[in-house]
Input
Amino acid sequence: MGKVHVFDHPLIQHKLSILRDKATSVKEFRELISEIAMLMCYEATRDLPLEDISVETPVAMAKCRRIAGKKLAVVPILRAGLGMVDGMVSMMPNVKVGHVGLYRDPATLDPVKYYFKMPPDIAERDVIVVDPMLATGGSASAAITFIKETGAAHIKLMSIIGAPEGVERMQADHPDVDIYVAALDDHLNDHGYIVPGLGDAGDRIFGTK
Output
């Protein structure tokens, strides 16, 4: 069963408290989403393998360590996931970025893929799927299913806020995927919003509320 990691780092929790505030401006909200994603990325990549190397400093040779040739990809779920990409890319400038666009069929309520573009070597990469809110888990589960169809086998899901219902759905559909969140909230309301949550992340990022 995939693990659920809830980050309790003081910087993340402080920024999350401002993010939740309904009075936070679009500009500040957008910046906070990116900053929290950057801090979460730092924690979520803690298990990357390292290799020993030698580096010549201005003084002497130094024994150092670097990431051992691990290829990474970040895949935002459109549109809100886009808000998390810049922060992660600033931490990992060489990371490749894929995109998954989904909408919900009004009749069946099933997620339908309308856009899907991955790096050509996605099957060889460790993938971090990003979406600020893990609510019902339907979109995240569908996105990961589509990514697995490319041959990618090592996938993590990173959301800023999760609901128990979304975590349960993810663990049922993708028990091999670890989940990283800054907060695990109480429940979903009748409209599918996370409670207490922060409202619609996409609307607050792009100013469309």
Observations:
- The chain is about 30% helix and 30% strand.
- The two ends are 37 Å apart (CA to CA).
- The first strand starts at residue 4 and ends at 6.
